[in-house]
Amino acid sequence: MVETLKIEVERVAKSRLPQVDFSNLPFGKVYTDHMFMADFRNGEWGSPRIVPYGRMLISPATPALHYGQSIFEGLKAYRGTDREALVFRPMANFKRLNLSAERLCMALVPEELFTEGMRALLEIDRAWIPSTAGSALYLRPFLFSADEFIGIRPSLDFTFMIIASPVGAYYSAPVKVKIETHYTRAVAGGTGYAKAGGNYGGAIYPTKLAVDQGYQQLLWTDGKEHAYIEESGTMNVMFVFGDTLVTPALSDSILAGITRDSVLAIARREGMKVEERKVGVKELIDGLKSGLVKEAFGVGTAATIAPIQAIGHEGIDYPLPAASKQNFAAHIYTVLDEIKRGIAPDPFGWVVKM
Ligand code: COI
Predict the structure, then answer these.
(1) Would you state the pLDDT for residue 255?
(2) N6-(pyridoxal phosphate)lysine: which positions carry it (predicted)?
């Protein structure tokens, strides 16, 4: 455990903030002046510190590089009316980080380290929180093994860090996705439910093949039969079948997205019919052909609510009706966005001021 969380702070000599064009923020390319880090050594967490954002020295023999012992989270902070940081559901990310840590056999991160580290980073880099519509400060907590040992065994040393990046939309327009029926993202008993770096690394090649065919993302299917929709890699996926919001039920091969959970909670509160269940590829294609599927969209922290314009399957693209303001996706985007920004009441107690 961290005994007393005294965070050492080393400030940058000169902020890079004036060089940032906040009217044109890409996703994940600009980082704030500072980063938070702490080390797990000799069985305990210590040296919590804020240092200038920059390159680090790590051993070439660290298992994170060789065996992918690396996990991460993603969450967003918004600028409140009093310039405070409004952080969306950080405790959900904290819990999921440790769920991933357990699966990857890594040291658990104490709650105080996670929240106080985040608070300290937001305090020092507060001016980096964008206020423009569609933008936020993306926080990326991550944990990696830091041993100097290339034998395979549970690591002894770990480093926990938080970096922050002012971001715009991950997808700037409705996406075209392809149902993947050859490659597999995750299988029962695997690491699909964990936010393990390797899950994402392994998805890059099949996703690139789809991108080369004109899609932006895949709709991953189950690894056994490729008969059921799972998720979309950068986001969970939802459909409106008639008047019902349908999403694949969670399993150990699907990431339990926090945006997914938030959308379902709001939809249920609004009285919408919601089903978390298996979604068959055949059922989806039949629904797209018959018009029963009115909407499809991705839900994720980075992606927010990402309308899907077409779904490809076995060489045929099935278009969805054009995204409109009347759509559930547009409605839920606004409801969620207003809660996150502190514009609307937060009946779920999701927003944490830091
Ligand atoms: C997030 O939405 O925070 C994610 O982790 C997706 C990411 C791979 C960009």
Answers:
(1) 98
(2) 195
pLDDT score recorded for residue 3:
52
* 197 CA to centre of ligand 1 in angstroms: 11
For each of the domains in the chain, give its residue range(s) and CATH number, in order of start: 8-167 (3.30.470.10), 175-340 (3.20.10.10)
Tokens of 179: 């149902």
SS (H, E, C) 245-268: EEEECCCCCCCCCHHHHHHHHHHH
Q: What is residue 228's predicted lDDT score, i.e. its pLDDT?
A: 98
Q: Which of 128, 169, 131, 129 is nearest to 19 (CA)?
A: 128
Cα(304) to ligand 1 centroid in Å equals 10
Does 206 sit in the ligand 1 pocket, CB within 6 Å?
A: no
Query: Probe ligand 1: pick from 73, 301, 304, max atoms within 8 Å of CB?
Result: 301
Ranges of residues in the chain with a pLDDT under 70 are: 1-4
Q: Model's pTM, two decimal places?
A: 0.96
How many contiguous H segments (helices) and E segments (strands) does the chain have? 8, 17
- pLDDT, residue 115, reads 98
Write out the two tokens for 81.
């009316």
Length of the chain in terms of residues written? 354
Tell me the residue ranges of DSSP E strands in 90-149: 136-145
Q: What phi, psi does 270 have (nearest 5°)?
A: -80, 0
Verify whether ligand 1 is closer than 6 Å to residue 74 (CB atom).
yes
- Beta-bridge partners for 39: 46, 159
